[in-house]
Records
---
Amino acid sequence: MKVGFIGLGIMGRPMAHNLMKGGHSLYLFSRSGVPQDLVGEKGIACQSPKDVAKNAEIIITMVPDTPHVEAALFGKDGVAEGLSAGQIVVDMSSISPIETKKFAAQINKLGCEYVDAPVSGGEVGAKNAALTIMVGGTEATFAKVKPIFELMGKNITLVGGNGDGQTCKVANQIIVALTIEAVGEALLFASKAGADPAKVRQALMGGFASSKILEVHGERMIKRTFNPGFRIELHQKDLNLALSGARALQISLPNTATCQELFNACAAQGGSAWDHSAMVRALEMLAKHEINQK
């Protein structure tokens, strides 16, 4: 198929690469420029999102935040200006569920289908085509785009209608943030008490406390490898969606709020671009102790 891909950062670049490996021709656009390794037999650099939409059957956006999606779709030389009836727009960014429903309605008015399909799994999952993909859209459109998703992910679920994929992603980010905080507290406790945190992590990996966060981010905390990954500023954005949604729904998410404050503390130390596993640094500052491997 002819697939458009807009947004070629830490996540988008390997996702686009996997689509080309799957045999699809890609029409590419990124505000920072299209990486040269994606340009060739299967990858064609475009001048604008409008240019992408004019050439592709399915157009994917993978950009940082809600305003970036809106600009890519409806801004000057945006996707909407290049669409023809029958095309499919797929947003794989992590953005507001409320705005997603508005975007879908606008795309539908043009005679096109809209799918929200945010992902989880980080850079490693993107490179290994092992992402979890949470989908909002109609069953008929999902059936059309699922073969594309299968080249980028493993766990692919149609959650419900437009916006439900984004709602699922917000829920995912709540769990991830709280689990990072829990792993950080546990390894900090172990280290301060004099145990080897690496051995503690190894032991916990065989028990009920085992998790992907303990496996991947626990190792990052111990080895002090806080290059992203997934930047703290992006997780802050996702938790803002959770907390603003909670206010609208009149529910309390107290531990989500605590994790956001810990991220805020990291940002105050210049850590907005650290990997989100570096939340542990805020806990270490409170304890005046850094996790260290014996």
Note: The two ends are 53 Å apart (CA to CA).
---
Amino acid sequence: MVTSCSWPCWWCAPRACSRRRDEPAPQPAARINVRSHPMTAHVVRSTRSSRVALALSLAWLVMAASLPFWGEASWMREFTEMSAYFIFAMMWNLLAGYGGMVSIGQQAFFGLGGYTMVALANLAGIDPFVSIALAALLAGLIAVPVSWVAFRLQGGYFAIGTWVIAEVMRLTVANIDAVGGGSGTSLTAFRGMDRTLREHTTYWVALAAVVATLAGVYLFLRSKQGLALQAIRDSEVAAESQGVAVQRTKLAVYVVAAFGGGLAGALYFVSTLRISPDAAFGINWTAFAIFIVVVGGIGRIEGPIIGATLFWLLNKFFADYGTWYQIGLGLLAIVVAVAFRQGLWGWLQQRTGLTLFPTTRWLQPPAQAASDAAPGQP
């Protein structure tokens, strides 16, 4: 049997050609218009569970926005505190879970945001709620020169280096008498404001911050920049070889995480009305963020939601046990890390396939796409 080749006849010598002279030259494969072909697969970026989650989220948002009209003041204070934990944990998850930059010094920006808010409100006379946004912006700006130092370190040295930076900020603030020095100070800018109005406004600002954080992180991870960030996490060398601007992307994420950390700090201390260096720059903030993300599911948007809810419940019912409470949190984190390596949500997702915030793309077969598009199909 004579096999045909794909080379043109003029390339080979006539005597060496194994193709028969009377056999027609092979023709190129017919091109198919993939856009108009009826059996083409579809790229899917949402799931049925994500659409249901979107509807439930909108319903929850309407109910949450009306809480000040029918709820108790203690509920609003607890939600504000939980919001600060959630935003801070979400920023740590973006930095470490998606970017691979494990930092144990993010409390530097948390405390910086809180102290900037208090200084602007007490000393400059700016409205405290406006000072929240300004404090977050300042934290993001300061992250730029800080990154020049932090990014010179890699791996464990990066983690320890960020903690050292946070300690330097704590000691610096503790020596500034204008903001109370080592003993801290109180937020006095609210004097004369009605307490109910202050609590309601603080709650609405916290709710807006949570929605903005969740939506911003979700949209970012669905973009090309979010895909580039995850490529950097997997391998910086491979990502750079594919044209990803590694240093620029890492800097942008570091600044965004600092902005979110400053926002969380300003939001927390505008609710507590009291700030001190140890409370603002304590390493417990990053420890709690790591606990929330690891237990909920690192590298997943749903992780900080599950983790922050669980942390709030544990803090509400067991915080009075003091040291035993801290030990319990550590043991729980160890158990989850060993038995559920992807976190509670990761474990649930592997068994049910639920994805509330899809950030990846799926290639859906034609038959399944047609069944999903047909009306009345389950």
Note: Residues 6-30, 369-378 have pLDDT under 50 and may be disordered.
---
Amino acid sequence: MTASAPPAAILSAYQGAKPPAPDWFRDALARAPERHSIESGGSTIEYFTWGAPGKPGLFLLHGGGAHALWWAHIAPFFADEYRVAAMSMAGMGGSDWRDEYAIAQHAADMRAVADAAGLMAQGKPVVAGHSFGGAPTATAASDPNAWVGRAIIIDSSLQMRHSPGDAERPQRERRFFGSVAEGLGRFRFLPAQSCDNHYIADMIARDAIVEVESGRFSWRHDPNGFTNTKRLDSAKRARSANCPMAMIYGDRSAIMDDEALAHLEKTMPAGTPFVAIPDSGHHVMVDQPLALVAAMRALLAG
């Protein structure tokens, strides 16, 4: 990748229009998912499904501040062989906001969605979680009920722990803007990175915007979702997993430096494969989506 401008500047240049996209991307989005919702932990949780019921299950979990449709161009590649479900965590996407969040509750919501989506029809499903979603994925993998058949952690350092100082952080105000085009112009990745695939950035940004009231738009996610989340030792959960684990990461990810990788090599169960995606930053499904599909297919086949 050679682009150096942040995605916010890239999308702003389109002034609300959709960037041109390759055929494979348009074909993937043409396989539109079904949207569902369930009640879990006192909240309405949205999820999307691809593929026919009765097939082996594949569960996809997004990262922090994101939503289920970050997987909209990835999931269709697995829909012929799997019943695929992607969930929006509470406080993100179309799922309810909560006064307080917890990694353990996100993992419980995952189990509820897996049951509702029919992912257990042929045994235990595969669960894949990106970034912040790696902690609930590791937690689900260590569930004493052992409902996960295999877990794939995608560019997550699993070093997120609860700190007593978290409760002292000031609450953030929700931001508003006057149009979808303005929101697209404000969109940016965290951690900051360049992006060549403008059409993917545009897709996930559009799905992150909601019209709160006529002419007043905002981001769907709770701006205090991370601050108000009760975290846990996700590395400990990974060590106690009841299923095989795998790690996929971007070889130029801002969070997967040598220290993080060394920590993970000590953390993950013995024999865990580590797969580096060439020329990818943290947001692997944005930077190198087809390479991510290939890596996941290889792990699933193995």
Note: DSSP finds ten helices and 13 strands in the chain.
